[in-house]
Amino acid sequence: MTQNYKPAYPAEFRHQMVKLVALGKCPKQLSKEFGCHYTSIQTWCHAAGVQYRPQATVTTFASSGTPLNSNERQELMELRKKLKRVEMERDILAKATAWFANNKD
What we know:
61% of the residues lie in helices and 0% in strands. By secondary structure, it is mainly alpha-helical.
């Protein structure tokens, strides 16, 4: 009888998932986006010593201690999301550049 066996995920994929969890992404959300089970992501994170911690909402400016209003809080959250996306794009482009450099004919 044959088993339904899914091959192991590549190491680079596992490292990316762990990195995203370390940045505050939810393992369940990642599992929906990338098609792997969230317990696999949790296992990889545990092995890497990374624990999922939802990003705390910032309520005050660090330097002055004054509270953020709702517009400032929203802008801060949007900027953090944009920064994560841009960092991921940068990493992808760096990998693509390296791949093309190694595969010249």
